[in-house]
Structures are given as structure tokens and as C-alpha cells.
Structure prediction request, 352 residues.
Amino acid sequence: MDGVDACLANISLSDGQIKFQIHDFVTVPFTEEEKEAITRALTATADEIGDLHFRLGKVYARVARDFLNCRPIDLAGCHGQTVAHRDGYYTLQIGTPVYLSRTLKTPVVSSFRDSDIAAGGNGAPLMPFLDWLICRSRPAPTIILNLGGVANISAVAPGMNQTEVVGFDTGPGMGLIDEAARLLFESPSDLDGRYSAGGEISDEILSELMAHPYVRSRPPKSTGRDEFGGELVRKLVEKYIIPPTDLLRSLVRFTAMSVADSIRRFVNFHDKIEILIASGGGVHHPLLMADLEAELPGWEVTTSQAQGIDPDTKEALLVAVLAAAHVQGIPSNMPGVTGARELVVLGQITAG
Prediction:
């Protein structure tokens, strides 16, 4: 909900192998009015969501046009803004691709989650496909962590096939921390841990959060701000009379603890893993990264930069890879992750 990520890359896919070269990347922040409109859309009327669907489509088109600056492309992918999702039942990403397709005069692939849900899956997370392509040839098992609004992991062992990959949303990523910073400090984020670093961890709050039904439930599963967002922060504020810095510090530790706990309980080869590779905005939060190291003693905790991928770029690269897979007819869902009955090609195409 922070802005639009755009990535320009060359991508080659074949036989479960990927070659890629990232040429350029940009994040264009949403305006405050756009952020407020997206937040309202989480509980909005059909009329408000429909209006934002077309407004965001124009935003995506403008960002892409300015970013490319007349550089030619063959294909674009657009994930859109998730405003509603219920595992296995429905998903809704808004931001019509029509404006993007017309502006760039190229096909646009979007609606990546629908086909997986139609095949009996949860429709999310999507990142394990890219993680599998990149990490299946590594010599040792690897945990790949994406710290976006939510946190999701992929567990990939050497030579693992597409249906064997383990992956799921572990719980909150930066979304819960950001919501707390907004409510407690009127700040869009806890930049560099500026607020949480001055707080103390509340064991009582940690115990309550680690008992959350989502954290305890077995995968396949995915989550969002409906479970780990502003409403949860408000409930904690009402229940616990503690300094705001202590609450925020506890939420940072909970985010790391829920990741580590999920790995230990739900990845059956966790005892053979010694490295966690992180990407997403959360890698810039020093306290969260330190907490991950504390919760995974003896592990190497690093970032996707080691794979040649800027941590901020990876989600945009994923969407580009999913778009390329669609036009090549390559299935890109992960049945072991989403619970789908079969491998399916993801996305729908809008002609340029």
C-alpha cells in the first residue's frame, strides 16, 4: 500500500530454469489521498471500489510510461492492489490493466490468483514460483523469506520439483508494524526502528499474539491486513496499558518470532537448513532483521542481494516472471503451497 513498483527485465524461462537480467527499477509512492482511498477500499462500497479500480489503472499506466521513457518492451505484468481475499473462495485485485495496455501498446497479463483458486487452491502466495526457479539448483536447502505487508516463506531443497515446494504466509510482515506506527506515532512507518528501538518487549503480548489462530493453523494458508492490521493494533491498545514504544517493539519481535516458529513447525526438513534469504521492505528494518537472527540461532540471515536481486525489486520481478510464464503456457502455481489440485497457468491477458 506504499506505492507502485516497476521493474524492467529480460526473462528467459524453460524446463524449470530461469535466466534474468534486471535493467532498471523504481518505486513511485502513492499520494496520501491515494493511500487513504486504498485503505478505505478494504471496507468500501462497490461504487468506491469500482472508482478506485479505474483510478489505479491510470496510476499504473502513468508510472509505467514515465519509467520506461520510450524504452521498448514485449510484455507487461500487473498484479494490482489486493482489497479482498479469502483463502480458497475469492480474491480481488483492482487496477484495470486496460490503461496500461493502451499506454504501452503491448499485452498486459494480470489477475494471477484466480486460476489457482478455480483449481481448488488459496490463490496465494505467489512468490514461491520464483523462489523455486532460483533456488532449486542450490547445493543445500534454503528458506526464502519475503517481508512485504505480510511475511511469506518458500522452503526449497536441491532438485525439488514444482509440486514439492513448501510455502505459505507465516503472518505479518511490515503491514502490522506500519499500521502500529500510523496509529501510535502518526508516522507512515517505523523507519530504521526509530520508535520500536526505544521500547521493551512485552512477554504477555507476545504470548497472546503467538496463540493467534492463524499462527497456529497449518498450511496451506495466506493472510493479510484483515487479520494483521489496524484492527488488531487497536484491540491491543485497548487491552494493554503500556508505552506505545513497548507495543511496537513487541510487534516487531512477534513478526520475527512467527516466521521462525512457522519454519520449525511446518517445514519438515528445517533441521537441515542453515540459511534464510530475505527480500522486501522489511530487510531495511534493522531491529526486525536482528530479531530474525536471534530467533534462528546459527543460521545465516542474508538478503536476496546475494542472488543478484535488489530486495526491493523482487516482487516486481516476480510479476514479470509470472507474465512471461503465462504467454509461454508454463504453469506457475505451486500446489504444495496453495493446496490446488493441479498445476495451472496463471493470469489473464489484455491485448495492447
Observations:
- The longest strand covers residues 17-29.
- The two ends are 27 Å apart (CA to CA).
- The chain has two domains: 3-123+313-350, 128-307.
- The chain has a mean pLDDT of 95.
